[in-house]
Amino acid sequence: MSIPYAKLENEDTAVITVRFTGNSANDDNFRDYLDKVESLYDREQPISLIFNAEKAVFPKFKYQQRQARWLIEKEGLMRKYCRGTAYVIQQSIIRWALKAIFSLQTQPVPYTIVETQQAAEQWAKEQLAKV
Q: pTM to 2 decimals?
């Protein structure tokens, strides 16, 4: 098993954090990350996601492309169950990577970019309350 690219926190709640570990993406751990995020939709209930990139490393372009394709492929699931996505990003280069991904494929649900986990949690809870 490769070193994880991201870990899920609070999987049993409606506000789930995907925390990037600081490890570089490789084919195995990036696929595992996408599979875990997709599995969050298996319960078929509203969720809000927080992607905490405080420790994220800049992903290679092929992983940015893979993330964009994933957004296209999972757009229906996201629109049906995801009430919003908050990104905790403090590094400008990671913000740039997110913008690059969104230039390949737009985010299909409401989103925000904040600097703290606390701000992300508050926003995510507000999105769920709009249901």
A: 0.90
